UniProtKB/TrEMBL annotation:
<keyword id="KW-0328">Glycosyltransferase</keyword>
<keyword id="KW-0808">Transferase</keyword>
<keyword id="KW-0067">ATP-binding</keyword>
<comment type="similarity">
    <text>Belongs to the ATP phosphoribosyltransferase family. Short subfamily.</text>
</comment>
<keyword id="KW-0028">Amino-acid biosynthesis</keyword>
<feature type="domain" description="ATP phosphoribosyltransferase catalytic">
    <location>
        <begin position="54"/>
        <end position="203"/>
    </location>
</feature>
<comment type="subunit">
    <text>Heteromultimer composed of HisG and HisZ subunits.</text>
</comment>
<comment type="pathway">
    <text>Amino-acid biosynthesis; L-histidine biosynthesis; L-histidine from 5-phospho-alpha-D-ribose 1-diphosphate: step 1/9.</text>
</comment>
<protein>
    <recommendedName>
        <fullName>ATP phosphoribosyltransferase</fullName>
        <ecNumber>2.4.2.17</ecNumber>
    </recommendedName>
</protein>
<dbReference type="InterPro" id="IPR001348">
    <property type="entry name" value="ATP_PRibTrfase_HisG"/>
</dbReference>
<keyword id="KW-0547">Nucleotide-binding</keyword>
<keyword id="KW-0368">Histidine biosynthesis</keyword>
<keyword id="KW-0963">Cytoplasm</keyword>
<dbReference type="InterPro" id="IPR024893">
    <property type="entry name" value="ATP_PRibTrfase_HisG_short"/>
</dbReference>
<dbReference type="Pfam" id="PF01634">
    <property type="entry name" value="HisG"/>
</dbReference>
<dbReference type="GO" id="GO:0003879">
    <property type="term" value="F:ATP phosphoribosyltransferase activity"/>
</dbReference>
<comment type="function">
    <text>Catalyzes the condensation of ATP and 5-phosphoribose 1-diphosphate to form N'-(5'-phosphoribosyl)-ATP (PR-ATP). Has a crucial role in the pathway because the rate of histidine biosynthesis seems to be controlled primarily by regulation of HisG enzymatic activity.</text>
</comment>
Length: 212
């Protein structure tokens, strides 16, 4: 039998939706993969191996060929600009990137500070707006920054809007819509094109069914 197709799946909140779509496409990954502490799961009957990765790291595994295929958020793809093929919009985990801050606070004129875990997306956006800003990179709980007066604004993901609301913050501008994408390593695509196309087609049909 040929080598298994290695898929880097995002651990955490995207996993369930991603695994559900895979199941519809005929790939049965175990539903409890998230509960197990195992990071590599084998499905020999489907000739698949699954790597459980942090969402931000899926692109790295795929770029270096450690995984043939991966599921990654468009936010990560925009931020990291890696050498992978983005082959399909899975239309799951919809959210968007927005600029937010305390209400009724005009942006200060001189180098406003922006807290974010997306320095590139934030810099590109404010450059387009002609604003000179200072990025304060953070790894999470970004909403803290304006509350404690560390920054004027944040650039972060908004999904339900609850985190902003419960922390007394408001949205100022929407930057871009985000969904999860199927990504492929370019060399794997050359070597395992047939299997990969089969998976892409299956997933593409599953997405259509979901959207209908
Ligand atoms: C994300 C994001 C927001 C929150 C938005 O954080 O950074 O904080 O979710 O979701 P909501 O609009 O539904 O409230 P995540 O939970 O991934 O954790 P983090 O703060 O550690 O980044």
């Amino acid at each position: 039998m040929s080598k298994p197709l290695v898929i880097a799946m995002p651990k955490g909140r995207i996993y369930e939706e991603a695994a559900g779509l895979m199941k519809q496409a005929g790939y049965h990954l175990s539903a409890d993969a998230e509960e197990s502490r195992k990071l590599i799961l084998d499905f020999p009957e489907q000739n698949i191996q699954v790597m459980m990765a942090k969402p931000m790291d899926v692109v790295t595994y795929v770029e270096y060929g450690a995984a043939d295929i991966g599921i990654a958020g468009k936010d990560v793809l925009l931020e990291q600009d890696r050498d992978v093929y983005e082959v399909l919009d899975l239309k799951i985990s919809p959210c968007y990137v927005a600029v937010a801050g305390l209400p009724n606070q005009p942006l200060s004129r001189i180098a406003p500070k922006i807290a974010t875990k997306y320095p590139k997306i934030a810099s590109d956006y404010f450059r387009q707006q002609g604003e000179q800003i200072e990025i304060i990179p953070l790894n999470g709980s970004i909403e803290l920054a304006p509350i404690i007066g560390l920054t004027d604004r944040i650039v972060d993901i908004v999904s339900t809007g609850r985190t902003l609301k419960e922390n007394g913050l408001v949205e100022y501008e929407k930057i871009t819509d985000i969904t999860s994408r199927l990504i492929v390593n370019p060399v794997s695509y050359r070597l395992k094109g047939e299997e990969i196309d089969e998976m892409v087609n299956g997933l593409s049909k599953a997405v259509e069914v979901e959207q209908a």
